[in-house]
């Protein structure tokens, strides 16, 4: 059985700065880490591998060359293999183009359509882009079931039973494999890499795939393959203007407050 974990490298801070000219994130200033929920997805894959030793766990990421580090960390944590989609042609991809590339990579790694022995795990959302779109989009492109907000998983023969967190409580659902599952942090407590894991990660080769390897052209991914247009990027003003109407005996403060409210049509 193959479990593919979609794993994104993100800035290790919630204070992500944007380049207002280009509309892109400034990623170079921060130490990068594995997206926290992807650590949960990976930990779940490794838990399932502990139960079923025939499971092979492959961590797949799309990003710049330094995202290799996240994949090595994934191997140190127990993944068998790391695959990186990295090439200038992928640069500028929005969520749709990213999902297309990831879906194509899964089909390429599986050597054809995913089988009823394949499972794709990802985080519910990434801390930087935070759209939560990639998991469901990958499932739509692959035309396989998706289970979102999952906090518990049990594998059965060629199917999966999952507990989902929904507004009213919990939902127990079952789907046939292959399927895409997006996990929430309640699912587990990610562990730490072992020394042998770290040594394995050092020597393991990270396979790098480029658009050509996936049968994708420049029109499918990158800016050309991305229907999203960033119209404007700006920092919202967080301060509030304060006007002080000092108290006085002549009622001037009351008059100025009333005319202030009238001017704005509040009274
Ligand atoms: C016009 C435009 C241009 C952009 N250009 C760039 C750019 O040049 N460089 C850039 O880095 N970003 C770029 N982005 C942002 C990029 O599209 C998103 O980072 C990406 O699509 C993931 O979206 P998200 O962060 O909302 O992920 P979510 O949908 O919130 O992530 C959910 C889950 O999907 C999986 N996942 C998401 N992204 C990846 C990934 N890359 N690899 C593996 N698994 C993943 C993870 O499991 C994650 O937990 C651009 C966005 C737009 C709109």
What does this structure look like?
The chain is of the alpha/beta class. It has a single domain (2-214), classed as 3-Layer(aba) Sandwich (Rossmann fold), CATH 3.40.50. The protein has helices spanning 36-51, 68-77, 95-110, 134-142, 195-203, 252-263, and strands spanning 2-6, 9-11, 17-19, 24-26, 32-34, 56-62, 81-85, 118-123, 146-156, 159-166, 169-176, 179-183, 207-209. A nine-stranded mixed beta sheet has the order 11-10-9-12-8-1-6-7-13, with helices on both faces. The protein has a two-stranded antiparallel sheet with strand order 2-5. A two-stranded antiparallel sheet has the order 3-4. A hairpin with a 4-residue loop joins strand 3 (17-19) and strand 4 (24-26). The longest helix is centred in the first third of the chain and has 16 residues, at 36-51. The protein is elongated. It binds flavin-adenine dinucleotide. Flavin-adenine dinucleotide binds next to helix 1, strand 6, helix 3, strand 8 and helix 4.
Helix-residue proportion: 25-40%
Task: Tell me, briefly, the overall form.
Answer: elongated
CATH architecture label name: 3-Layer(aba) Sandwich
Order of helices and strands: EEEEEHEHEHEHEEEEHEH
What is the alpha-carbon Rg in Å? 24 Å
- Give the strand order of the largest sheet, numbering strands 1, 2, ... along the chain: 11-10-9-12-8-1-6-7-13
- The number of distinct structural domains comes to 1
Largest sheet: 9 strands, mixed
CATH class: Alpha Beta
What distance separates the N and C termini?
Answer: 68 Å
- CATH homologous superfamily assignment: HUPs
- How is the quaternary structure best described? single chain
Mean pLDDT, as a whole number?
Answer: 92
User: Helix count, per DSSP?
Assistant: 6
Report low-confidence residues grouped into runs of 5 or more: none
Class inferred from helices and paired strands: alpha/beta
- Residue fraction in strands: 25-35%
Give the strand tally. 13
Q: Which ions and ligands are bound to the chains?
A: flavin-adenine dinucleotide
CATH topology: Rossmann fold
């Amino acid at each position: 059985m193959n479990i593919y974990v979609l794993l994104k490298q993100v800035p290790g801070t919630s204070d992500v700065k944007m380049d207002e000219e280009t509309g892109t994130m400034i990623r170079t200033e921060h130490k990068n880490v594995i997206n926290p929920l992807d650590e949960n997805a990976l930990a779940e894959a490794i838990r399932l591998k502990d139960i079923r030793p025939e499971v092979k766990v492959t961590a797949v990421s799309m990003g710049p060359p330094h995202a290799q580090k996240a994949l090595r960390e994934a191997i140190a944590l127990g993944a068998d293999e790391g695959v990186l989609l990295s090439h200038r042609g992928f640069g500028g991809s929005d969520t749709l183009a990213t999902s297309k590339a990831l879906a194509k990579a899964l089909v390429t790694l599986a050597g054809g359509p995913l089988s009823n022995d394949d499972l794709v795990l990802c985080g519910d959302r990434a801390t930087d882009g935070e759209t939560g779109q990639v998991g469901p989009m990958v499932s739509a492109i692959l035309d396989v079931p998706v289970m979102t907000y999952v906090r518990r998983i049990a594998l059965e023969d060629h199917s999966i039973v999952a507990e989902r967190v929904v507004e009213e409580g919990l939902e127990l659902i079952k789907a046939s494999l292959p399927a895409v599952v997006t996990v929430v942090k309640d699912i587990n407590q990610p562990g730490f890499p072992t020394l042998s894991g770290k040594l394995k990660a050092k020597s393991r080769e990270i396979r790098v795939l480029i658009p050509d390897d996936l049968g994708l052209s420049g029109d499918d991914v990158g800016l050309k393959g991305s229907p999203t247009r960033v119209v404007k990027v700006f920092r919202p003003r967080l301060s509030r203007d304060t006007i002080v109407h000092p108290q006085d005996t002549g009622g001037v403060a009351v008059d100025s407050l009333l005319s202030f409210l009238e001017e704005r049509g509040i009274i």
